[in-house]
Design brief:
CATH architecture of the largest domain in chain A: 2-Layer Sandwich
Radius of gyration of chain B: 20 Å
Pfam families (chain B): Na_H_Exchanger
Largest sheet of chain A: 5 strands, antiparallel
CATH class of the largest domain in chain A: Alpha Beta
CATH superfamily of the largest domain in chain A: Regulator of K+ conductance, C-terminal domain
Order of helices and strands of chain A: EEEEEHEHEEEH
Strand order of the largest sheet of chain A: 1-2-3-4-5
GO molecular function, one term (chain B): antiporter activity
CATH architecture of chain B: Up-down Bundle
Number of helices of chain A: 3
Shape of chain B: globular
Number of helices of chain B: 15
Organism (chain B): Microbispora cellulosiformans
Radius of gyration of chain A: 21 Å
Structural class of chain B: mainly alpha
CATH class of chain B: Mainly Alpha
Keywords (chain B): Membrane, Transmembrane, Transmembrane helix, Transport
Number of strands of chain A: 9
Distance between the termini of chain A: 47 Å
Largest sheet of chain B: none
CATH topology of the largest domain in chain A: Alpha-Beta Plaits
Strand content of chain B: under 5%
Distance between the termini of chain B: 72 Å
GO biological process, one term (chain B): proton transmembrane transport
Helix content of chain B: over 70%
Oligomer: heterodimer
Number of domains of chain B: 1
Strand content of chain A: 25-35%
Number of strands of chain B: 0
Chain lengths: 160, 387
């Protein structure tokens, strides 16, 4: 996949590429910080048939939505490569024992040998969270380890 | 004291009137420039409501308007972009120059207005209005389109050509001898090259001098610098407008963006005054006789701009529909063309030149954006039929 960069004098920069299915999409980065997500017309490949204006916050949100599942995907790919290594996503039930407590309190690594590699909260990924990272309800904790140890982690978060 | 009261009354009425016209233009979705010109015609000698005392004040305001127009235009570009655009698009830029300067020049010669008027008319038909075109591109959602960089590079090329053209025109209008004229043009060329070089190499020093976290200080420094350089350029017969443009180019980055945002309202006010002033100077009774000629010239130069856009976009590998859009986007004429005609009129070129230029810009500033609006549904229909 090749991303093409074009200077737009007086406006900013445009990046674009063609997807495998033949659709062309791009991003116009205005100097003012505004970004436009641009989707090109399949019948008229030079025309932007959809232009969505995004401010900083919206662009960040889009990046995370597109990026978050990718991390889980990569983890899954990784554990396929290393036999015996399993990654598991554990949901913290609201009101359960670790809702509102620092992650370190669960002592996951000491008790099971598995590692928490990321916490996904409302679509945002917190990679390699520190022990003082405070968990809240509906967080998804991504655990990597052996079959037994990851199951043990799920039990810890489920019951305490 | 009494005079001040009348001055404020007249100037206030004019500016308020422009505001109402601007609101109207916004609602209809056209550029306000033709309406401002019409307002100027109405207020001028022989118009419906001739102004008494405020004309001198408006004349100075108009000069400031030109300086601010060119300064903010320069602020939009940085030296790097100019150099890359020049390298990549010199050929399309030259085609643009030849195709679109020729109709104006030829018409002036056919009318027997002489070589100086021919050079002025060449400029009137050559320059696309970067202001109107930029607005069309963003209003119609064409900024993301793949042909848009082609259009923008052509506009950059035209603006740079202006930096050379305006001093040549100024020298010719001043009736300088060949030697004196050549010296002026040489000075202008040297100034343009030096500014580009300084901006590329030492831009950060100028920025360090001008930069200020305080918007008040920034406005004063930028406007002061622009006026100073404009005055110096005018003194050297190089054209004040070019001086302001060069100051704009020398400033870049975040500083240029801040300055641009701060100066935009000031420019809008004085640029509107400038268009009114041009209308004031034009005899409204001469507009109608010039209309037929202006319409013919408009038609010819619409076609030449369309050809320019199609040629440039084809070179950039754009498909058929995109080529037509590039051509259509280049049609509007506006501020630059009036600036050029204004210089010629002030220097006492042929008396009908002002009326012809006003009628010409009235047509293309109004029709250009309209054509762009109409072309897309048409292109979609054609694409649907062939698919």
């Amino acid at each position: 996949m090749e991303v093409e960069q074009t200077v737009l004098p007086g406006i900013g920069l445009r990046h674009e590429f063609t997807t495998r299915s033949g659709r062309r999409i791009g991003v116009v980065s205005h100097r003012t910080g505004r970004r436009d997500l641009v989707i090109y017309d399949p019948d008229d490949p030079d025309r932007a048939c959809e232009t969505v204006k995004l401010n900083d916050e919206e662009a960040d949100a889009l990046v995370e939505l597109l990026g978050a599942p990718r991390i889980v995907q990569r983890l899954n790919a990784m554990h396929r490569e290393v036999e015996g290594l399993v990654s598991l996503q554990v949901v913290i039930t609201p009101g359960s024992r670790y809702d509102g407590r620092p992650m370190g309190d669960a002592q996951v690594r000491t008790r099971t040998g598995a590692s928490i590699v990321a916490v996904v909260r409302a679509g945002r990924v917190f990679a390699s969270p520190a022990p003082d990272f405070v968990l809240t309800g509906d967080d998804i904790v991504v655990v990597v380890g052996g079959e037994e140890s990851t199951t043990a982690v799920a039990d810890i978060f489920a019951s305490g | 004291m009494h005079n001040t009261a009348i001055l404020f009354l007249e100037f206030g009425a004019v500016v308020l009137g422009l505001g109402i016209l601007g609101a109207l233009a916004l609602r209809v979705g056209i550029s306000p420039i033709p309406l401002y010109l019409l307002a100027g015609l109405a207020f001028g000698t022989g118009g419906i409501l001739p102004l008494g005392t405020s004309e001198d004040f408006i004349a100075t305001g108009a000069e400031l308007g030109v300086i601010l127009l060119l300064l903010t235009l320069g602020l939009e570009y940085n030296a790097d972009e100019l150099v890359t655009s020049l390298k990549g698009n010199a050929r399309a830029g030259l085609v643009d120059l030849l195709l679109n300067a020729a109709p104006g020049a030829i018409l002036a010669l056919l009318l027997g207005w002489g070589p100086v008027a021919a050079v002025a008319m060449a400029g009137v038909t050559y320059a696309t209005s970067s202001g109107i075109t930029a607005k069309v591109l963003s209003d119609l959602g064409w900024i993301g389109n793949r042909e848009t960089p082609v259009v923008l590079s052509l506009l950059v090329f035209e603006d740079l050509t202006m930096a050379v053209y305006l001093p040549v025109l100024t020298a010719m209008l001043a009736g300088l001898s060949l030697v004196a004229g050549a010296v002026t043009v040489a000075i202008a060329l040297a100034a343009v090259s030096v500014v580009l070089l300084v901006a590329l190499r030492f831009g950060r020093y100028i920025e360090a001098f001008v930069a200020s976290p305080n918007s008040e200080v920034l406005v004063l420094k930028v406007v002061g610098l622009a006026l100073l350089v404009a005055g110096l350029a005018q003194q050297l017969q190089v054209s004040a407008a070019v001086g302001a443009f060069l100051v704009g180019i020398a400033l870049s980055g975040e500083l240029a963006e801040d300055a641009h945002a701060l100066l935009a309202p000031l420019r809008d006010l004085f640029a509107a005054v400038f268009f009114v002033f041009f209308g004031l100077q034009t005899d409204p009774t001469k507009i109608l006789p010039a209309a037929g000629l202006a319409a013919g010239l408009a038609l010819v130069t619409m076609i030449t701009k369309l050809m320019t856009g199609i040629y440039a976009a084809r070179r950039a590998g754009i498909a058929r529909a995109g080529r037509v859009r590039a051509g259509i986007a280049l049609i509007p004429r506006g501020e630059f063309n009036i600036v050029i005609a204004g210089l010629a009129v002030a220097a006492g070129a042929h008396p009908d030149l002002g009326a012809l230029a006003a009628a010409y810009v009235l047509i293309l500033a109004a029709f250009g954006p309209l054509a762009a609006r109409l072309v897309q549904p048409l292109l979609t229909k054609i694409a649907a039929r062939t698919a």
